[in-house]
Amino acid sequence: MRILEFCTIVCMFFFNTSAIVLNTDESQSILDAASAAAAGLQALYNGNSPDGVVGKWPYPPYYWWESGAAWGGMVEYWHYTGDATYLNVTWEALVSQLGPQADFVVPQEAFNEGNDDQAFWVFAALSAAEYGFPEPPSPFPPWIETVKNAWQLYVDRWNTTNCNGGLKWQFHPENAGYYYKQSIANGGFFQISARLARYTGNQTYADWANKIWDWVSGVGLIDDIYNVYDGTDELINCTGVDHHQWSYNVGVFLYGSSVMQNYTNASDVDNIWFIRTNGLLEATTTFFSPFKNATNIMFEAACEINHNCNVDQLSKKAYMARWLAGTSMMATNTAGRIGALLRASAAGAALACTGGPDNRTCGFHWYTGVFDGSTGLGQQLSAMEVMRALLVNETAPPMTLPNVVIRGAPGNLTAPPPANPSETEAARPLHDGAPPPTGMVPGLALLIPLTIFLSLVWTCGL
């Protein structure tokens, strides 16, 4: 009897049909997979419960910025999929955090709101404007005016007292990190400026995008081969750089650069924004192909292999996926290469989304072929973002004001990647010496369950 019960339980595991199944070439499969990941993300939200705060995932462990990032992901999800299931809760959340001056400066969050934190809420509002998301109620202004309000604060905070420019990480002097000038804060300002230039046609925003780029590259936060480093410190007059690399740093500049390429009609290979976009895309290889048999699968290079990512870092692949999809739309010459990265990463993410009671909870490591037991907001958001990104070919590009004429149509993710020596395995960064999670060689992740299954077929007489 015990053998029969054991066989029944194990067979239920192997034959369970509720797990996320993704065919990266089939639209309905992509929609279904992204929908399942979105449902898992929303299941973690408690903002509408008695012990929650509207607009915020529970803190701790999730800081205010990550809630803004997640709602930005939900705006993208709504636009890419056409699924309005979460439209009302997303709208309510964004409105709830607009702040007294409609600029996403929220007094209750002063202890943890910096320039980068604010930017992730602004990204959400800017996407809302670009995609025609329902506007806030009176007396709040339209989304685009909220974005402009926040942008003006960034201009006012641009600090030339030290380092000849740049945004600080923090804008409240009492917060730790006030003297740190951070790439994601400056990259957020850069991307918002680029997107406002494209949306409005106002050259002032484009001028600021150029100014920010010049400063960031001038102090060495972007190097000659487009690696993007974490930040620098005005206490040393920005003479040294923290060389940690995070996926969202290169991602935020990549998408902003592609928007500038689109805005300036930079189809000429000699155009500066064409060159920068392609250089930044090349620099993203740091975050793909962690092992020889995990080609094109995304990973967070600074912490994932060694299992030491913190809560914030567990979400950063979401933004890389979001901005890669956007880049393929703005700079169509990148679409083939980006498509290969997104398809492989989405397939890996789907295999990692087999946890929890419903066998649909998403894990963090996408290159193992199995659920790794790591769960949370960042894991769900990242899986949702990379899956829905595959719908970019079927998605309308961001809107502009009626008087703005922009070249560009959605890219073709099915196009083959360009022939490029940097795309070969020999040229990709590999981490052969580092053990994969759980001590398992990635290629064995599927072989071991298969071996167990075949043994059970024989044992249980299936």
TrEMBL record:
Residues 412-434 are annotated as: Disordered. It catalyses: Random hydrolysis of (1->6)-alpha-D-mannosidic linkages in unbranched (1->6)-mannans. It is an enzyme of class 3 (hydrolase). It is found in: Endomembrane system. Its EC number is 3.2.1.101. GO terms for cellular component: endomembrane system. Pfam families: Glyco_hydro_76 (PF03663). Residues 1-19 form the signal peptide. GO terms for biological process: carbohydrate catabolic process; fungal-type cell wall biogenesis. One of its GO terms (molecular function) is mannan endo-1,6-alpha-mannosidase activity. The chain crosses the membrane at residues 439-460. Keywords: Glycoprotein, Glycosidase, Hydrolase, Membrane, Signal, Transmembrane, Transmembrane helix. InterPro entries: 6-hairpin_glycosidase_sf, Glyco_hydro_76, Mannan-1_6-alpha_mannosidase. The keyword Membrane applies. Belongs to the glycosyl hydrolase 76 family. This is Mannan endo-1,6-alpha-mannosidase. It comes from Cyphellophora attinorum.
